[in-house]
Amino acid sequence: MPWKNQGGGPWGSGPKGPWGSGPQPVGPRPPDLEDLLRRGQDRLQQIMPGGYFSGIGITLIVLLIVAFWLLSGFFRVQSEELGVVLRFGKHVRTVQPGLNYHLPYPIETVLLPKALRVNTISIGMTLIDDPARRGRSIRDVPEESLMLTGDENIVDVDFTVLWRIKPDGVGDFLFNIQNPEGTVKAVSESAMREVIGRSQIQPILTGARNVTEQGVQELIQRTLDSYGAGIQVTQVQMQKVDPPAQVIDAFRDVQAARANLEQLQNEAQTYANQVVPQARGRSAKILQDAEGYKEQAVAEAKGQSARFLKVYEEYKKAPDVTRERIYLETMERVLGGADKLVYDGGPSGQGIVPYLPLGELTTKRPPTTGPQSSGGNR
To answer: Which residues fall in a coiled-coil region (predicted)?
Structure first.
């Protein structure tokens, strides 16, 4: 069934359809652009009457707009930040904290990463809200903390990584990696697993933490540098290194036994350090005494030998006199300290049977004078 357009334009009421009325407008009508421009001109003429709108007024407005546009390029960089200036999206320079300027948008823009702040990432543990303690508590994450050692043991490791943006690598940090924190966490966990996998469990649990931390830090830094991440790892801290919870009691018993063994060994070493020097001192003293006795005996032997040679020389000159002198000296040396009874064997003593009181002779008595000895003989 044909129908004819009953008038109206594209923004008017519209034509009527074959079933009666035409399409109804939906919602408010859009504003007329020409009407808006005309109203704006009328208001400017009211503000600046007298024809200024046509010349000086427009110039002033343009100058004000340009001035505000140029002033929009000032920006402030906070103490923990660095300003990365982009010109049409390309990194052109990096500015330090303070008041700085860049060409207004859209020529240049600025990014303000917190490049001077030290960030912390925890692996193997997480902080959760604890209503009972009215604060936050640490919860272990076994998927991250359980690691296999080189001697096929399992160890539970919780550690933190401290990192910051390199001052000369801010551009790399912003444009080379998409998720910096996730990248650092993944690389750190991988590095720790690699170092633990090359190590024995005993040094890790006792005294090799510093060596492990240093090795993990160096491996993380090499990996991030290969990515061009612009990140500097400042420190790796191992918070907890224990066997799994199922065997930790038995392991602590073994550790206590080893500690007692080390204590006993240290005590034995201390005793040895004390006794050995004393024994060496006594040995040195005995050697010195023996050396002195040796020198004394040799000197006495040499003196006696020299004396004998001298006596022999005199003996060859006068044998009888020398023999008698030696006899007298020998008798003097033998009888000098002994108790003596002298029997002269004269005629007055004939028929006397000598009586020797052997018991008294064996008893030490003080020496007697001449008259007492004579009386004793009678």
So the answer is: 247-274
